[in-house]
């Protein structure tokens, strides 16, 4: 793990723009932003990335927002900001419709053209466009690298490289227990990562929030840990989900990890029991049906 960290941990400043553009050559890059009810922030993400990375620097060839079942104005805001926007449910509808972030990312493979895909969350509030060149650095300069993960400091956290609640209480312990070669990843759940298109198309993709951890595990298993690199992107802040919603995220991540351990599961949904005060003030159980479907590798369907 220490060896991997030493070999494959970078800083976004390690590459200059000219160097990256020269390394890019004819390689095409898609920036994909999965977005569920992000009308408040998606416009800023799209506008800044389009202006800086596509129009000024020509480092990105398309900015694509996958609207993931939004009920607000995400679609219109993203389109007005200059993104190509697709509704996840309308992409290859004959393949069926699932809910979730991973579904939006899986479906993106059918509407993007880049040799390399950079994923970025739509709910970023403290970030900058250098995230994208930072993530592209290892992919454009090292042909052995298949997947690049961002890491960052989170303003307000007690320790500079603390992850969020699911990262520290679920993902990191799972990695320690079941997937120790991945323990060098500082932010294993970061939504900012980049992957070669051909590689992503070979991966089975959980439709919910386990997409990040699954991609790391499956890349390590199929290509070795040296196919993964990580890049320090500086600071990043995002909006926070309520604790009970993170219970569903944690259930999805545990399910995908379990499927990749020596055990496996066959359910499409798992009932997660959570407790809220009832009218009498006593704890009342709420069963949340957490979807845990996986999409097969996209390659045979492309
Ligand atoms: O059904 C959904 C839910 C979320 N999103 C989008 O996915 C991104 C991240 O979602 P968010 O709910 O903000 O996730 P976080 O609570 O921030 O979760 C962190 O941890 C997750 C688990 O690894 C990662 O998927 C996230 O990218 C990472 O930011 C945002 O653009 C969302 O709009 C969708 O597209 N569809
Ligand atoms: O990354 C995580 O662990 C989850 O998204 C939760 O993050 P938060 O505790 O910062 O909301």
From TrEMBL:
InterPro entries on file: Glyco_trans_2-like, Glycosyltransferase_2, Nucleotide-diphossugar_trans
Cross-referenced Pfam families: Glycos_transf_2
Boundaries of every Glycosyltransferase 2-like domain copy: 30-164
This enzyme's EC code(s): 2.4.1.266
Cofactor dependence: Mg(2+); Mn(2+)
Molecular-function GO term, any one: glycosyltransferase activity
Keyword terms of this UniProt record: Glycosyltransferase, Magnesium, Transferase
Entry keyword Transferase: yes
Enzyme class (EC, first level): transferase
Reaction catalysis annotation: (2R)-3-phosphoglycerate + UDP-alpha-D-glucose = (2R)-2-O-(alpha-D-glucopyranosyl)-3-phospho-glycerate + UDP + H(+); an NDP-alpha-D-glucose + (2R)-3-phosphoglycerate = (2R)-2-O-(alpha-D-glucopyranosyl)-3-phospho-glycerate + a ribonucleoside 5'-diphosphate + H(+)
Recorded family membership: Belongs to the glycosyltransferase 2 family.
This protein's name: Glucosyl-3-phosphoglycerate synthase
């Amino acid at each position: 793990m220490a060896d991997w960290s030493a070999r494959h941990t970078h800083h976004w400043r390690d590459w200059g723009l000219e160097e990256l553009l020269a390394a890019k050559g004819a390689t095409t890059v898609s920036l994909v932003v999965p977005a569920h009810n992000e009308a408040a922030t998606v416009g800023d993400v799209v506008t800044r990335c389009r202006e800086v990375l596509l129009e000024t620097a020509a480092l990105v060839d398309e900015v694509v927002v996958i609207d993931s079942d939004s009920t607000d104005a995400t679609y219109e805001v993203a389109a007005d900001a200059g993104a190509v926007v697709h509704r996840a449910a309308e992409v290859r509808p004959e393949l069926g419709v699932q809910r979730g972030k991973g579904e939006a990312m899986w479906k993106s493979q059918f509407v993007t053209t880049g040799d390399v895909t950079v994923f970025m969350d739509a709910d970023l509030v403290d970030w900058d466009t250098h995230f994208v060149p930072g993530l592209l650095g290892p992919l454009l300069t090292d042909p052995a690298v298949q997947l690049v993960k961002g890491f960052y400091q989170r303003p307000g956290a007690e320790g500079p490289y603390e992850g969020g609640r699911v990262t520290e209480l679920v993902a990191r312990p799972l990695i320690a227990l079941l997937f120790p070669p991945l323990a060098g990843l500082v932010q294993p759940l970061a939504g900012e990562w980049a992957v070669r298109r051909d590689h992503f198309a070979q991966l089975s993709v959980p439709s919910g929030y386990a997409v990040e951890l699954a991609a790391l595990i499956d890349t390590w298993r199929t290509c070795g840990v040296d196919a993964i690199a990580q890049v320090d992107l500086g600071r990043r802040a995002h909006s926070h989900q309520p604790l009970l919603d993170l219970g569903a995220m944690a259930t999805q991540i545990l399910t995908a990890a379990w499927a990749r351990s020596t055990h496996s599961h066959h359910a499409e949904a798992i009932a997660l029991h959570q407790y809220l005060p009832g009218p009498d003030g006593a704890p009342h159980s709420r069963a949340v049906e957490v979807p845990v479907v996986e999409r097969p590798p996209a390659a045979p369907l492309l």
